[in-house]
Amino acid sequence: MNIKTGRKGITLWEIALFTVFLAVAGGASVFFFFLNSDDMKRAQQKFAWVQNINDMLDEVSNEIANSVQFEHPFNGSSRECFFRTAGDTGALVPSVFEEGFVFADGSLTYVTRNAAATTGMKRLGRFTNPLVTNCRDGKFTRVSPGRLEISFKADSPDGSVTSREFTRVIQLRNQ
Amino acid sequence: MSDSAPRSMFEKLLYVGIATFFLWPFVQLWSIKAIPVFESDAHLRASVALENLMEGALSRPFERSYNSPFEPVPGCEDLGLVGRVEILPHPEFPANVLVRAQVRWGMFPLTKNLSLEYLRARTRP
User: Fold this and answer.
1) Does A76 map to a domain?
2) Quick one: pLDDT at residue B37?
3) Which one of A31, A55, A169 would you mutate to disrupt binding with B, by most B Cβ within 10 Å of its Cβ?
4) Residue in A with minimal Cα distance to B1
């Protein structure tokens, strides 16, 4: 017993503080369990999938927007698009060589075509061909002379998301 | 100082400081719309819708519009996403046009905005 202060036991204030700390610790541990849970992992995988497709669409949009001459869906919509690009020096590549994107066999592919054949490219930026798999109803729509719209529906690889719709509007800068 | 004495102003300030120290990173995360767990998918969809709005605006002929009302974005009705495009002459550079696209979603106290600005020559090259 401390005679000087005359305190005995713990005060109400200390009990309250202890309870608060206990609640915070309990809440934090529950939260960390939640962060480690399967639900959270699935949500992260789904988000990563969506973000990857959007990054890929950024690349595709960039490629199409900077095309020198946009050839194929001149009007209306199509499952494929073709355009002429500039070479590394800035000169226009001869018109028999065209690049394009094709929705075929449930996937989006980056292709090049010349007078003889259409062949798949190895990769577009950091994305390898096919750029998207498990996609349906993909089409390129020429909304107006300066505007192209890409839209498709895709299913995630693990089947947790079905027919998520992706749409991009592209301003064709050189038309 | 006895136990029952009220907290001094200095101690109260200390508590406010400690609370701010803990909460400030979350406030910052909220202000940049980047709280990682909540609604990142909604945020992604909103940013794509914003890009689409901007690209659509750039591909149309310019028409001056300022303070135009927000309109629902097609395809994002479930989010309650509304967007608008403003096109105005640049206040400082008369040869340029400022195109600003904005999207907004969420209920009042937690509303989020994203905006994108683009500067273009008045006449196309």
Assistant:
1) yes
2) 54
3) A169
4) A5
| Residue B110 domain boundaries | 39-121
For residue range A41-100, list pLDDT tens digits in order. 888 888 889 999 999 999 999 999 999 999 989 999 999 999 999 888 888 888 889 999
Peptide bond into A130 cis (omega under 30): yes
Give the pLDDT score at A165. Answer: 93
First to last CA, chain B: 78
> Residues A118-158: pLDDT tens digits?
888 888 889 998 999 999 999 999 999 899 999 999 998 88
Instruction: Give the three-class secondary structure for B95.
Output: coil
What is the pLDDT of chain A when averaged over all its residues?
Answer: 87
Q: Do B44 and A47 touch (CB under 8 A)?
A: yes
Are residues A168 and B48 in contact, defined by beta-carbon separation less than 8 angstroms? Answer: yes
Nearest CB to B59 within list A11, A61, A147: A147
Residue A144 at interface with chain B, using a CB cutoff of 8 Å: yes
Domains contained in chain A, number: 1
Q: A116-137 b/e with 16+ CB inside 10 Å = b?
A: eeeeeeeebeebeebbbeebee
Chain A residues touching residue B41 (CB < 8 angstroms): 46-47, 50
Is residue B33 one of the residues assigned to a domain? no
On whether residue B2 sits in a domain, the answer given is no
